[in-house]
Design a protein that fits this description.
Layout (H helix, E strand, L loop, with lengths): L4 E11 L5 E9 L3 E6 L1 H17 L4 H9 L1 H11 L2 H7 L4 E3 L4 E11 L8 E10 L2 E7 L6 H12 L5
Helix pairs in contact: 1-2
Length: 162
């Protein structure tokens, strides 16, 4: 039976240092979890495609700019339409975890200060404990929400998702 992509959690960050992080997309299939690293070139290309599509459909400057800002949604759609093999081959370092390799996935809703007198910013923190170690990913905001992320991951990983 062919592996099917169930959904994607776009724009998650993996800390690589005190002030550095990498952008990733976590893609959930019916058989495993895939990690796809978003390089700056790839992110720029996706934004340019969104802008070009808006221009081709007759949008003016503001419509094109809006389409570029919504590129995060386009990223999730893009990975949902790709085959798992294509996702893994796209960028060196992309990875896959099957349910047998994962001991726990913890999904939490967190907040960070919003700056000077600004409201706190909610986000989702995903901690994956696997045979190869532990990794923590954080979304830029609370879309998708904690429950949506838990439900998506639970479709493949069942009771290890908390």
């Amino acid at each position: 039976m062919a592996e099917t992509v169930l959904g994607a959690i776009a724009n998650v960050r993996f800390k690589t240092g005190m002030f550095k992080s990498e952008k990733w997309v976590l893609v959930v299939t019916d058989q495993r979890l895939l990690g796809a690293r978003l390089t700056d070139d790839l992110t720029r290309s996706i934004a340019e495609q969104a802008r070009a599509q808006a221009k081709a459909s007759g949008s003016g400057f503001l419509g094109q700019w809006g389409a570029q800002l919504k590129a995060g949604f386009a990223i999730a759609q893009r990975y949902s339409a790709m085959t798992p093999e294509a996702i893994l081959a796209e960028t060196p370092g992309n990875w896959a975890l099957s349910p047998g390799q994962v001991s726990s996935i913890k999904v939490e809703r967190k907040s960070r200060p919003g700056g000077e007198d600004g409201p706190d910013l909610d986000f989702v923190k995903i901690t994956i404990e696997a045979a190869g170690g532990k990794g923590t990913y954080e979304t830029d905001d609370d879309k998708p929400g904690q429950r949506d992320v838990q439900a998506l991951l639970a479709r493949t990983f069942g009771p290890v998702v908390k």
